[in-house]
Predict the 3D structure of the following.
Amino acid sequence: MFRAVTVDARPLTRRQVVAWGLWDWGSAAYNAVILTFVFSVYLTDAVGADLTGPISANSWLGWSIGASGLLIAVLAPVIAKRADAAGRRKRAVAVWTLLTIATMAGLFLVEDDASFLALGLVLLGLGSIFFELASVSYNAVLTQVSTPETVGRVSGFGWAMGYLGGIVLLLGVYVGLIAGGDDGAGGLLGVPTEGGLNIRVVALVAAAWFLLFAIPLLVSVPEVPPAADRPPAPGVVGAYRELFADLRALYRESPHTLYFLGASALFRDGLAAVFTFGAVLAVTVYGIAEDDVLIFGVAANVVAAAGALVAGRIDDRVGPKAVIVASLTGMIAVGLVLLVVSGPAAVSFLAPSLVGLFTFLFASDRAGIVGIVLVLALGLLALLPVRRPA
């Protein structure tokens, strides 16, 4: 699939591409297990099930992730710029990954009681910040393991590795720790379910998984030092000053690139909400059992992995805009259908916050879907007029 090529006179090997992709494989521990299909569902459907007051656990989760997304929007550009300028992309990946893993392991302390909801939300919010900052630096490393001709397929390979890793890990924790938990013991290992112990052990397993598969990138992919004539990394104020100067220059030289960045901020925000609330809504709105939602997660990851591989090659042939427009259109259509499909009665920062707001205003978890669809639609509309830069 990949051949040895040269980037900036450095040999690029298949082993380094695979090592880069393994980080995505490991990151499924956070994306698929913690944020989407296991721990967020545990927080809203178990820990926060007996929460008193007018605000539901779903709304608190939406606002928690929304606040995290706002901090990410403020911090990510500057932190990434400093890492780039200092030639420390890989070090940045390591630091933020380890902090993410620490918050994942800390979730073991969140027992099945409403008094632990705040702790769970704080750890999940911090984990989201650390994970997104790790992802920013990880994505920057893509230029070190690809060429302009192969960036689409290498990127698609990384996405597919993430989804495949999610499949393997979800199946593993489902069979080993979750299935059959109604009899007081979860999975083949028979871990007690009292106090949510089996789900808390899942958090430890996910943390260990991420750590294990992050190591190859840190060992095999070399750091790219800054150019000898490049100025030293700026301070925080200087980084923001340079950022705004770069944006002004970008607007003058390639305005449609800037337009794309704005559109991307919107639709990626909507995607983050899908990843965060997909399984939560499946349980609270459509009545899928907590155990069965993992099977739904496996099926979703199978489809997504195949889509990432295919879309990566289409991207190399027809460009990214067509792929993004088609994907967003499909997601909006499905979201509208889900909005009216009957079920039982019942970054990013914009979409999760809107999920929390609509859920609170209409006292219905289903209404949160409106927030997700709205942000995806705004992202699509903002993307349509964007043209390829000269």
